[in-house]
Amino acid sequence: MAEYAVELRNVSKFFGSVAAVRNVTLGIREGEFFSLLGPSGCGKTTTLRLIAGFELPTAGEVYIGGELQGDTPPYRRPVNTVFQNYALFPHMTVYENVAFGLRMRRLPENEIRRQVHEALEMVRLSGLERRRPRELSGGQQQRVALARALVNRPRVLLLDEPLGALDQKLRRAMQLELKNLQQQVGITFIYVTHDQEEAMTMSDRIAVMDQGAILQVGTPAEIYECPASRFVADFIGETNLLEGKVVEVWDHHALVLVDGARMVCGAVPEGVRVGQRVTVAIRPERISLHAQPPGPLAIPGIVRDVVYTGADIRYMVRMADRVTVLVRSPNTGNGSTPHFLRNETVYLSWRPESARLLVA
Amino acid sequence: MKLPNKARAGNRSRRASGLLRHGLTAHGVLCYVFLYLPILVLVAFSFNASRYSGLWRGFTLQWYEALFSNAALGAALRTSLVVALASTAISTVLGTAVALGLERFAFRFRPLMDVLLYLPIIIPDIAMAVMLLLFFVLTRVPLGVGTIVVSHVAFNVSYVALVVRARLAYFDISLEEAAQDLYADEWQTFRRVTLPLLMPGILGGALLAFTLSLDDFVIAFFVSGPGATTLPLRVYSMIKLGVTPEINALSSLMLLASIGLIALSGALSRR
Ligand SMILES: Nc1ncnc2c1ncn2[C@@H]1O[C@H](COP(=O)(O)OP(=O)(O)O)[C@@H](O)[C@H]1O
Ligand SMILES: [Mg+2]
């Protein structure tokens, strides 16, 4: 068995002079739920279409199951796609839509019937076989698209923002359902989304893309905890990004001067020099507030704003002259985290490892 | 009571707009009367028992009976139907292919081809007729049913292409991609997805072509040989001897057929 279900090697795609995908190298493992995450227009759909065979790379190679695809047409690739707008055939019933792939592969009619019913049961659409796509709700259409692709048992399933058109509540439910389905069928999923929360919830691994390039690949925890760049730190969850200058470096730690305040960073990449301009990234939930300085490293600040969101309380704290940081404090209700009011003086502290030093 | 100035002005303008509205309604009604009164008169007189006068002499179906027993008219109708069916079949296939070609492929002379395709719709029938006749004479093609069919194809291709293209413009390409994603090759994709979805447009175009072919007088007048007489040509030669109630009856039937075809074509292309 090949090492990767899908592998891209130095793949680029140009539309005229626009580079939609730039030099992407990526290996997606067998049975993995893999997400391509990035803002709109970053090249996610194009990457998916390069795998499906709707686009051919300008440079580089695409391998599926270890086999070089070259200019293999889509109908000879062992992948199926769930399209962004579902692309259900409007002139066919739900049954005919789901049976389409099996028909094209010339399976016997009784086998087709069995597999279509099985697939429709799997996505909980039994009984709607005779409906036309336009007689279904958005959520139901989405399931038909899923059944139509999955019934073929592809080696890899490609999904292009499949939940994009659904409302928030349905979306949440479908996220869990999709994830369960994927584990149940054991098919490799490549999932495109611009919603970082969705990617975090569902994926085994995530590739973060921007402007056609892949910035970082890792598990949701790796991406969240150890963002490799400003862009990733900012795109995944909330982050305070503070500009500063390195004044001291020792043993993977650094002292950074941020607008007059000195802070210790505990996650410093190799090669950082004294005097270098850097960004310190701190997650708002990793900062704690105190009424009295808890230690010599605590930084004083003034609460500028308090927002009660229910699960937690959000403070905007002005740390130095021009720097304001967001702090998220869990609303435990047992007094373990003190509450503060507007204009109160507070002291901020965090573990050095929570302050990541980014050079990109 | 003395109304404030503003209210009086409002009253006046309301009265004026009321007048305008009634005027417009009357104008609309008159337009329709102008368009349809002659037709109604014609239909009514096809049931009139009097042969010569414009006076109503009672209801009869005798002109319709006379019509159906007129052998020369029957032959003309057959010729018209043969021409219409043949030219419709050919121009539907060609027109659909042209529409697909122009809509789906980018090539060097596409804008020029676009313009050339719609020329037969724009240029007057008489110019088209003269050009076609000249062409047949120069190429020494004997005039007859064949030349009428070819001439009708020449303008019907444009109409079919126009109707099919209108439908293609709204065609969701991702449906074809979905078919290919589900193992359908190019031909299967065309047969199972593209063609069925275009079918209402194609049928609409075919019906339009059929109607236009049945309807054509000018071009057929030029390019038909002595042996080939279509229905409009036959009617014209009958009319030279005066308008008879048979012609009224025939016109009424043709009107009915045309309305039926147009309605069908409209229903199909809207689907
Ligand atoms: N067929 C195309 N022709 C020209 N430009 C395209 C085409 N498809 C995509 N692009 C461009 O490539 C870039 C990436 O697009 P896309 O892959 O659709 O991004 P995403 O799915 O991440 O929103 C965009 O700038 C887009 O405008
Ligand atoms: Mg996209």
Protein model, in words:
The complex is a heterodimer of chains A (360) and B (271). By secondary structure, chain A is an alpha+beta fold. Chain A folds into 2 domains: 229 residues, Rossmann fold, CATH 3.40.50.300; 121 residues, OB fold (Dihydrolipoamide Acetyltransferase, E2P), CATH 2.40.50.140. Helix content of chain A is 23%, strand content 36%. Chain A has a 6-stranded mixed sheet with strand order 6-7-8-3-9-10, sandwiched between helices. The mean pLDDT of chain A is 92. Chain B is an all-alpha fold and 271 residues long. Chain B has 2 domains: 45 residues; 207 residues, Orthogonal Bundle (MetI-like fold). The longest helix of chain B is centred in the N-terminal third of the chain and has 41 residues. Magnesium ion (MG) binds next to α1 of chain A.
CATH fold node name of the largest domain in chain A: Rossmann fold
Overall SS class of chain A: alpha+beta
The average pLDDT value of chain A, as a whole number, equals 92
What is the level-2 CATH architecture name of the largest domain in chain A? Answer: 3-Layer(aba) Sandwich
N-to-C terminal Cα separation of chain B, in Å? 61 Å
Question: Could you give a short account of the major beta sheet of chain A?
Answer: 6 strands, mixed
Strand content of chain A: 35-45%
Strand order of the largest sheet of chain A: 6-7-8-3-9-10
Classified by CATH, the class of the largest domain in chain A is Alpha Beta
Please give the count of helices of chain A. Answer: 8
* Uncertain parts of chain B: none
How many structurally independent domains of chain A? 2
- How many strands, which pairing sense, and closed or not: the largest β-sheet of chain B? none
Features:
heterodimer; A: 360 residues; alpha+beta; Rossmann fold; 2 domains; 20 strands; B: 271 residues; MetI-like fold; 11 helices; globular; binds magnesium ion
Short description:
By secondary structure, chain A is α+β, with helices and mostly antiparallel strands. Helix content of chain A is 23%, strand content 36%. Chain A folds into two domains: 4-232, Rossmann fold; 238-358, Beta Barrel (OB fold (Dihydrolipoamide Acetyltransferase, E2P)), CATH 2.40.50.
